[in-house]
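Holo prediction. Input below; ligand is NAP.
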Amino acid sequence: MKTVLITGASRGIGRACAIAFAKCNYNVVINYLNSEAAALKLHRDLANLGCSSIVYKADVSNSFQVNNMFEHVFSQFGHVDVLVNNAGISQQCLFTDISEEDFRRMIDVNLVGTFNCCKAVLPSMIKRKSGSIINVSSIWGITGASCEVHYSAAKAGIIGLTKSLAKEVGPSGIRVNCVAPGVIETDMNANLSESDKATLADCTPLLRLGTPEEVAGVICFLASDKASFITGQVISPNGGFLI
Ligand code: NAP
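Structure of the complex:
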């Protein structure tokens, strides 16, 4: 049986990924940081689907915690077939109001977190000459977003990391891809007013925001054998917002 580790799986897109992978018969590692009750509920929900899962609290920006998490997972499941680097934070803020601390935290969670998890999993993937990594960026990492300079910079970094790493580890049989979602209905966008959401939907050819399940579907596809010749790519489920 295959094993997937999903960072930031307690809520939103990560939670939807956990359910989607469970339905594809994976063992699932649910990483979370603060939302313990939600992570434990997901663990129970996955058990009801017949899925074996582990709940593990770790801050992805902390390499010590990440390495401990992977050691625990290796001891339980042997190896990790699929890593989904989904954990992320965002902040809307004028550039002139972004503190150095805000900037560093944004890069640390989104980009360094992705680096930490890739580093922890790759030696065993290289040894097995097999594995798939999916990193979660954003359309703002492609286009840039006003009032989200630090978020956009971190997400653009994830795209660069994905493409470079895909070139480096492709010869070892490992695929590395990226999803860059448009606006998705999760807690991350809870600050948007109904009129903001309506405006964003109006700018989207499919006339609506996306769901976490729609992003999870793309991530599962990229992890699957159906995507066996796809690596180094950025796939953007965005309803046509960016064409
Ligand atoms: P969300 O609902 O806010 O969930 C974020 C998840 O990340 C939570 O499970 C949270 O865990 C986890 N997390 C945050 N910081 C962490 C850390 N330091 N270590 C471990 N886990 C951490 O957000 P979402 O919308 O599902 O976003 C998921 C990913 O998609 C993010 O990378 C985001 O940037 C990206 N994305 C989202 C959208 C969108 O419109 N929603 C669009 C494009 C890209 P706890 O709650 O347990 O702390």
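The pocket of NAP is lined by residues 7-8, 10-14, 31-35, 59-61, 86-90, 109, 136, 138, 181, 183-184, 186-189 (CB under 6 Å). That is the main takeaway for now.
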